[in-house]
Amino acid sequence: MTTWVQHPEGGRERGPRGIARAWVEVLVRPRRFFRNGVAPGDQAPGLVFAVVVAVAYVCGLFAFVPGRLPSLGGGPAVSAFLGLAVVALLVAPAVLHLTAALQTVLLILLVRDRAGVSETVQVIAYATAPCVFAGVPIPAVRVACAAYGVGLLVLGVAEVHETSLTRAAVAAALPAALLFGYGFGGFDAVDAVARAIGFL
User: Fold this and answer.
1) Does 5 map to a domain?
2) How far is CA 8 from CA 39, 45, 62, 72, 132, in A?
3) Residue 24: which domain range?
4) Does a structural domain hold residue 78?
5) How many other CB atoms are found less than 10 A from the CB of residue 54?
6) Is the residue at 69 inside a domain?
7) Cα(144)–Cα(105) distance, rounded to whole angstroms?
8) What is the C-alpha separation between 55 and 82, in angstroms, rounded?
9) pLDDT by residue (tens digit) across 151-161?
10) 4 falls in which pLDDT band (50, 70, 90)?
11) Is the residue at 9 inside a domain?
12) Which of 41, 139, 149, 151, by CA, is between 20 and 30 Å from 179?
């Protein structure tokens, strides 16, 4: 699950510059990105990308919502460092691969000719790109991040697994709900926006 291909065909550039380029490309030209930037067996850059997004999200939570900072002893700085380390080393990789496993099962049920698990991991990882801003405590921003992430996931599944957008949307619905609705706080943000405009 963590294979790093030495010379991938069409894979992503490594390092901070590669992460920054991937982030811009997937936000601006997602269809082309998923068509050209996802390579079989080359999921390590995607894993690193997802970890960076998760850390950025949690940094936003810690910075804007001090109550979200864990009390681990040693003061706020140490608590923040330990919290981010847990997210980077344990939580983000585990969530990415569990979500990819669920997505793979659903694809097996719904898409006959599909790409491999590695490609699925990459699609999910890069679909999280908008969520670098999801830690901002503005419900409308969080809704936009989650909605954009869901759209990227559906588009990525359709492009990489060569299926229709409708079938991709059905296959990605549950993973998207878990990742963007619960993981990145999309459902709570939708509820907050609905209450603010008087729908609830």
Assistant:
1) no
2) 7, 11, 37, 41, 27
3) 15-196
4) yes
5) 25
6) yes
7) 28
8) 12
9) 999 999 999 99
10) very low
11) no
12) 41
